[in-house]
Amino acid sequence: MSSNKPIIGVSADIGVEEESKFPGHRQTFVYEDYVKSVESAGGIPIVLPVTTDEEIVKQLAEEIDGLLLTGGVDVNPLEYGEEPLEQQGGISPERDKFEIALLKAVIDLKKPVFAICRGLQIMNIAYGGTLYQDLTYISKKTLKHQQGSVNLGDETHSVFVEKDSYLHDIFGEKVMTNSFHHQAVKEVAKGFKVTAWSKDDIVEGIEKEGDCSVVGVQWHPERMADEHEHMLKLFKHLVKEAS
Ligand code: MN
What is the pLDDT of residues 113-165, one digit of tens each? Predict the structure, then answer.
């Protein structure tokens, strides 16, 4: 029997073991809820390890049917022309370079992309946007976007969705989300539009203009999909577009 499930590339993180038999040992990994969400949505997840080899990046983009950009550490502010401020978090410059190159290669091939948290931020940077290095650098007070609940899937704030967007097709005008970010989009990249906001005017969703589905969300739907099944719709949308 042959399967027609699309292959979804899932961008990997680089980690360093701290408490183990091999401290300092580097590892390539993704949190399981990303790959489980792709699988539950009907796709075949393939983990894509960080590489700086341009030919590998090009071939990876050709091999996959769609791309899931995962969350992780902050984007290096040098990527958007800023020096690091005091509240800037940890970075992974190698991963930034990889994901920016892979994302552009996938979009050039007109394949669909779904980007989560850091993934949304990478997408914005890749096409010329900028970030607030920390929410405290915004002149007005914001909501708490780094939620404190033990259950990572808990809903913590509202997100308001713009009409005529994929996110509106998926959720309608409002959705409750979790929130684990201390940075946010400042200037939106050219060719992208903001399609979701929180009540304090923080960007919670962006989409690329054009006929291919390129969607990013600032929250973590993969951590919610278990208990809030409608969050799986985001992954189903990616799988459908990749089919
Ligand atoms: Mn948020």
Answer: 999 999 999 999 999 999 999 999 999 999 999 999 889 999 999 999 999 99
Catalytic residue check, 209: no
What dihedral angle (degrees, nearest 10) is formed by the CA atoms of 159, 215, 46, 104?
-140
Q: Are 135 and 142 in contact (CB under 8 A)?
A: yes
Please indicate whether residue 117 is annotated as part of the active site. Answer: yes
> 22 and 81 in contact (C-beta within 8 Å)?
no
Structural domains of the chain, ranges and CATH numbers in brackets:
7-242 (3.40.50.880)
**First-to-final CA distance of the chain:** 18
Instruction: Give the residue from 115, 135, 238, 243 showing the smallest Cα distance to 185.
Output: 135
Q: Which two tokens stand for residue 232?
A: 């799986």
Task: Quote the ligand 1 centre to 62 CA distance (angstroms).
Answer: 33
Q: How far is the CA of 197 from the centre of ligand 1 (A)?
A: 9
Write out pLDDT tens, residues 192-214. Answer: 999 999 999 999 999 999 989 99
Which helix (H) or strand (E) segment is 207 a member of? strand 203-208
Residue type, 8: I
The pTM (predicted TM-score) of the whole model is 0.96
What is the chain's length?
243
The answer to whether 174 touches 151, Cβ cutoff 8 Å, is no
Of 207, 202, 187, 180, the closest CA to residue 81 belongs to 187
Tens digits of residue pLDDT in 11-51: 999 988 777 777 788 899 999 999 999 999 999 999 999 99
